[in-house]
Specification:
The protein has about 500 residues and is mainly beta. The protein has two domains: about 130 residues, Jelly Rolls; about 350 residues, Glycosyl hydrolase domain, family 43 (Tachylectin-2, Chain A). The strands form six sheets. Strands 1, 2, 3, 29, 30, 31 and 32 form a seven-stranded antiparallel sheet that branches. β13 and β14 form a beta hairpin.
Length: about 500
């Protein structure tokens, strides 16, 4: 089914009382406890796929060093689950840490890691990984680690089983910031890749989102996709910050649109930028992120600009002070979909930018105790009903109209909707036969037997419900030169998706 957005090319009429409606995710967890030496400091950037009859997760594991300092290390942990909630950490024996190899670390020397399955790759490359490597700048972050990279940047790797990895090239594919995300897009048969680079806007260097595609191991040229602007700064100031950065973007491709969950980092002081100047750094920036928000953006599958919702509301906003997510969220590289739900794995930060207290001079031993006692950087799972990341709804009564060419629809097909109604609400549908110039449904009669009064009211919560007029679901015949207008009468309800699919009686 297609997402019901005002920008969808099938949308002909959008009532004035119809508003975009975002999902309201529920968060459960933590699902990965920091209960081993290799991830005692927490985990971040979890990639989750359903593979080989189970759920498999790869995540960056953080440790505490011998000096009690946090090691934001380039190590990747691996876990397995039957339900996506209860996870096992198998002892793989692949990487030695602290003199032992009975841990769940895989042979992948990346930070900011994404792992996915490439179904078009040869068996030796079935699993692909993307991430940053920088052992020259961070020597001996992992005991016994022997890889040496020539330059800091973004690398790729491949594997036949997801456990034993081979880095593709000695030099990085891109040399941007330290955070990137990727996902497999099954509707375009390509890897979608997003990373951040610094660019000056409004007199301040800040991070933007660039994107590229990868097919058969080859990347397209990078393009600037999303950049924070004055409106983002206004929102930042409503939360007591100064400017907004786009830290990175989580992917969520759909059949007709590509969604992105943008990490908005609200920065509230200039101290970090002044330190950069004193150190001879070439790009002073605002620092001290106050909060990490996620906001929704999207673009049509055939290209064009990325769009934001009016007002750019947060998809996930920090929770009140003293709660687990009061400083915000660090989301997975991509959304994992099941038959009934969409899952976004994420971790919490218990302080600004998660590890800022150490950088601000907090005693390392106290810092370690703080993380342990407050549960910082623990992986959780947010979830919402499948297909409902964004829809069209009203708490009043209004109408939506969709148009389909005559050669797109006809007998043997039916209208399907993903919808939910408030108590006392409903959705009904009427069909009109009209040419494009006739302004279907306005001052014209519906097709006989397909009027609003003939439609069985749709009530309740349905991920996929068939529209019926009496006992009939099959659509009428429409000349190819004309259009079928599908008018939705929305009464205190939200419609998230629509589709024209073969009729099943």
């Amino acid at each position: 089914m297609q997402q019901l957005l005002e920008t969808n090319p099938h949308v002909w009429h959008w009532g004035t009382a119809i508003r975009p409606v975002q999902a309201t995710p529920e968060i459960v967890g933590p699902v990965i406890p920091n209960d081993t030496p290799v991830d005692e400091a927490g985990g971040i950037f979890p990639s989750v796929i359903h593979d080989q009859g189970m759920y498999r997760m790869w995540y960056n594991a953080w440790q505490w060093g011998p000096d009690n300092k946090l090691w934001i290390s380039y190590t990747v942990g691996y876990a397995e689950s039957n339900d996506g909630l209860t996870w096992r950490k198998p002892a793989l024996g692949l990487v030695e840490f602290g003199g032992r190899s009975d841990n769940n670390l895989v042979d992948l020397p990346f930070g900011g890691t994404t792992v996915m399955v490439d179904p078009l790759a040869p068996p030796t490359h079935r699993y692909r990984a993307f991430g940053t490597a920088d052992s020259a700048r961070t020597p001996q972050r992992l005991d016994g680690w022997s890889r040496k990279w020539y330059s800091y940047g973004h690398y790729t790797a491949h594997s036949a089983d997801g456990l034993h990895w081979v880095v593709d090239e000695d030099l990085p594919r891109f040399i941007p910031g330290d955070t990137a995300t990727a996902c497999w897009d099954p509707w375009s048969n390509c890897v979608r890749y997003a990373f951040r680079k610094n660019r000056r806007y409004g007199g301040v260097w800040r991070r933007d989102v660039y994107t590229a595609e990868m097919r058969q191991g080859l990347f397209t040229p990078e393009i600037l996709a999303l950049t924070p602007d004055d409106y983002d700064d206004i929102r930042a100031r409503t939360y007591g910050a100064v400017v907004c950065d786009y830290y990175y973007m989580s992917w969520f491709p759909q059949p007709d649109v590509i969604f992105g969950l943008v990490q908005n980092e609200y920065c509230d002081w200039l101290h970090e930028g002044q330190d950069y100047v004193a150190q001879g750094r070439v790009y002073p920036m605002f620092g001290g992120p106050a909060e990490e928000h996620l906001s929704l953006a999207w673009r049509e599958r055939d290209g064009g600009s990325w769009r934001h919702l009016p007002g750019r509301p947060s998809f996930l906003a920090p929770t009140p002070p003293g709660t687990l997510f009061h400083s915000g969220y660090y989301a997975a590289p991509y959304v994992t979909s099941t038959a009934s739900e969409d899952w976004l794995y994420l971790c919490n930060g218990q302080c600004r930018h998660s590890f800022l207290p150490r950088e601000a001079g907090l005693d390392p031993a106290r810092m370690r105790a703080f993380y342990r006692e407050n549960g910082a950087m623990l992986i959780h799972r947010a979830h919402w009903p499948r297909g409902r990341v964004l829809g069209a709804g009203t708490t009043l009564i209004d109408e939506l109209e969709l148009r389909f060419d005559g050669d797109e629809v006809g007998p043997g097909q039916s209208v399907h909707l993903n919808l939910s109604t408030h108590p006392g609400g409903s959705v009904r549908v009427a069909l009109f036969d009209s040419s494009e110039a006739a302004n279907a449904g306005i001052g014209t009669a519906p097709i006989a037997g397909y009027a609003k009064e003939d439609c069985l009211p749709l009530v309740g919560d349905h991920l996929d419900v068939t529209v019926r007029w009496g006992g009939r679901a099959s659509l009428p015949s429409v000349p190819e030169s004309r259009q079928l207008a599908v008018r939705l009468y929305v009464d205190c309800a939200t419609v998230y998706q629509f589709g024209i699919v073969p009729t099943v009686d």
